[in-house]
Amino acid sequence: MHSEPVIYVVDDDPDSRESAVALISQMSLKAVSYSSAIEFLDAYDGYRPACLLTDHRMLGMTGVELLETLRGRGITLSVVVMTAFAETELTVRAIRGGAVTLLEKPFSNTALWNAIHEALSEDRDIATGEERIQAIRQRLETLTPGEVEVMNLIVEGETNKAAAFRLGVSVRTVENRRSNIFEKMDVVSLAELVQLVIAAR
Fold first, then answer.
1. pTM for the whole thing?
2. To pair with 36 at 20 to 30 A between CA atoms, which of 4, 58, 149, 194?
3. What is the pLDDT of residues 162-189, one digit of tens each?
């Protein structure tokens, strides 16, 4: 995750797009604009923290369809949907799709700033959580197959003796593998290990 946030603006109306970029620049934030959802999807490289500010009514893919496409690809980038027609069905669909908020045009500078601030705050939290999970998964990948077997059993609540019986190995072998697991996963208790495994899964 980078330190400087980026606001992506997607709008097929040049005047509206340029107006949004100008307002964002006044907030001392970096803005990058696109004239269509497809153009944005082709260009987005996973930069975080960031916020996507997208108009809804656009030729081709709409703003909400863009949001749904991102989520379908597993991209959790924070999204604010702009619209001049804030219909109930659209609002519900946008929020269910994971939009931070629906910003109704015309909006004030304050409303835009509040929406962007909320989206960036959410995006930082999500990105930090995803980085943590990735780090946990990388540690899990360092475990040997035998250590994974022991880890799965002790996470299920099996004692060392019961795990040894189920695996057909000695209790000492289970103890050694358990010690290696705790060291590789950088934990000091079973509770910590369980929390990490749950988070990774």
1. 0.75
2. 4
3. 999 999 999 999 999 999 999 999 999 9
According to DSSP, the residues that pair with 81 across neighbouring strands are 54, 102
Residue 41 token pair: 């999807």
In the chain, the amino acid numbered 112 is L
Strands of the 78-83 sheet, one edge to the other = 30-34, 6-10, 50-55, 78-83, 101-104
Identify whether the C-beta of residue 40 lies closer than 8 Å to the C-beta of residue 65.
Answer: no
- β-partners of residue 101 are 80
d(CA 54, CA 145): 46
Tokens of 68: 């749904």
Nearest CA among 55, 66, 67 for reference residue 19: 55
Of residues 93 and 146, more confidence is placed in 146
Cα–Cα distance measured from residue 20 to residue 24, given in angstroms and rounded to the nearest whole number = 6
Nearest to 116, CA basis, from 18, 11, 25 = 25
